[in-house]
Amino acid sequence: MHKEILVIDDNPDIRLLVSNILKEQNFIVRTAANYDQAVFEINKKLPDLAIIDIKLDKVDKDGIDLLKLITSKEKLIPVIMISGHATVQIAVEATRLGAYEFIEKPFSKEKILNYINRALESYELKKEKNIIENKLFHSFDLIGKSISIIKVKKIIDKLSNSESRVLISGPTGAGKELVARKIHKNSNRSNKPFVIINAALLKENTYEKELFGEEFEDGNISYGALERANKGTLLIDEVSEIPFETQANVLRVLIDQKFKRLNGSKDINVNIRLISSSSKDLEDLVKINKFREDLFHRLNVIPIQLSPLSSRTEDIPLLIDYFKDKLSEINGVQQPNININNDSLYTYSWPGNVRELRNLVERITILSSNETKSNINKIIDDILNPKTTLVSNKDLFEKSFSSPLKEARKHFEKEYLTTQLKKNHGNISKTADFIGMERSALHRKLKELGIKGIN
Asked: What secondary structure does DSSP assign to 148-190, as a single string?
């Protein structure tokens, strides 16, 4: 299939020259002579590659704005910027914003074709990599033989012909997103969009924009999650984090199946299947007026409860074998020889649940694929039972045993997280990844425990 290239330049001679060069190579070519035409062409259909002149007809808008528009829609699409009088600063800015290459006019036929072919080749490789990773990660199955997992699987099967809203509850890392994907995959909407919005990761003033979208004076539109999920499924992850005021607007959408974009005047009709998830108890939040009771009842039509991994340890051997197979395929390495009878795997509390176990298996898969079973056993023991943990510290031990359970747990969590942060030189992302928590959840826990930045 021939690639489609969009050429944007206000100089007709340049447009004709580049178009002829591309057509000779059997590319499909679309052109735009000014900023407004370019916006129209981009919104109509994204090309496989865009060639954009920096200077266009508008004083307040230029090629950099078009570059931002394209990358906001699809960051992988390669964009080649061209200019006859650009500064080094503009070239650096274009590259920083995602431009594949920057070419100064005049340029030779060979030069521009070389850049185009390289850019398209890179684009195809990135797309292929994303497809493989998405296919593998998004095809993860719900693994387990425990009573709780069998119960969840049965509910998912019963939901296959249903449009009911679902509320998935459970601790962080237990597999809430996976369950939502399975529900979507088994539904009549399986060939329609599956969109995720993580309420815990949004800034306080961006919830409505992310949900409902926004209209701008220049005619550009930022589509929200509701609109992107039209005819498909929308998962609102950590729905408890949506501000109380915004919850009323979400409720109105569920009732009316329509909404207005920010700064918009026209009703947007949507037909979505809504799935919500939460690691907090929404009923408890309702009691203290942190979550709307009417919205809770609208979301909680079909409740699904996921158990922590520590309460279903019989699933650990199955999960390890499953992740070994998947992760070795993704990373292109040999499967590690993990001893599923290692006591540490069953006595460890798994605060990060299945995600933490998956991270452990991935770590072993990448770093220890050629190690012996005994060496891997020792690595697992060292990771799950670090000798440096401060539980062994005499003062902490005595302090914990002379305190109520709640206080003792707080002492342990504070010392444990402080130790892990020090190990990772204060890097929140690395610490969250190691302990199996989401970055946002770790931030909240550190704030709750009064732990400040560590260098």
From this structure: HHHHHHHHHHHGGG----EEEE--TTSSHHHHHHHHHHHSTTT
Q: How far apart are CA 172 and CA 260, in angstroms?
A: 33
- How far is it between the farthest Cα atoms of the chain? 83
Estimate to the nearest angstrom the gap between the alpha carbon of 453 and the chain centroid: 25
Those residues with Cβ within 8 angstroms of residue 314's Cβ, 6 or more apart along the chain or in another chain: 144, 145, 146
Residues 143-159 as b or e (16 or more Cβ within 10 Å = b)? bbebebbeebeebbeeb
Instruction: Please report, for the chain, the start and end positions of each structural domain, with discontinuous segments joined by +.
Output: 4-134, 147-307, 313-384, 390-449
Q: Which residue has 């960051």 as its token pair?
A: 75
Query: 3-state class of 80 per DSSP?
Result: strand
**E strand segments, 300-412:** 302-305
Torsion 57-61-62-67 (CA) sign: negative
Do domains 4-134 and 390-449 share one topology? The answer is no
Which among 129, 67, 63 has a CA at the least distance from the CA of 100?
67
Please tell me the least confidently modeled range out of 262-276, 288-302, 407-421.
Answer: 407-421
| Residue range 390-449, CATH number | 1.10.10
Q: State whether CATH 3.40.50.300 applies to domain 147-307.
A: yes
Q: What is the spatial distance between Cα 181 and Cα 195, in angstroms, rounded to a whole number?
A: 10
pLDDT digits (tens, 9 = 90+) for 30-57: 999 999 999 999 988 899 999 999 888 8
What the block records as the tokens of 370 is 């050629």
Q: Where are the alpha helices (DSSP H) in 385-404?
A: 394-401
Six token digits for residue 179? 């369950």
CATH topology of domain 313-384: Helicase, Ruva Protein; domain 3 (1.10.8)
Residue 356's CB is within 10 A of a number of other CB atoms, namely: 22
In sequence order, the 6+-apart residues with CB closer than 8 A to the CB of 434 are 359, 420, 423, 424
Residue in 376, 398, 399, 378 with CA at minimum distance from that of residue 387: 378
User: What pLDDT is stored for residue 126 in this prediction?
Assistant: 80
Q: Please provide the CATH number assigned to the domain covering 4-134.
A: 3.40.50.2300
Question: Contacts from 299-302 at CB under 8 Å and sequence distance 24+?
Answer: 299/165, 299/167, 299/239, 299/274, 300/165, 300/167, 301/164, 301/165, 301/166, 301/167, 302/155, 302/159, 302/162, 302/164, 302/165, 302/166, 302/167
Q: Kindly report the backbone phi and psi dihedral angles of residue 197, in degrees, each rounded to the nearest multiple of 5, phi listed first.
A: -125, 125
3-class SS of residue 121: helix
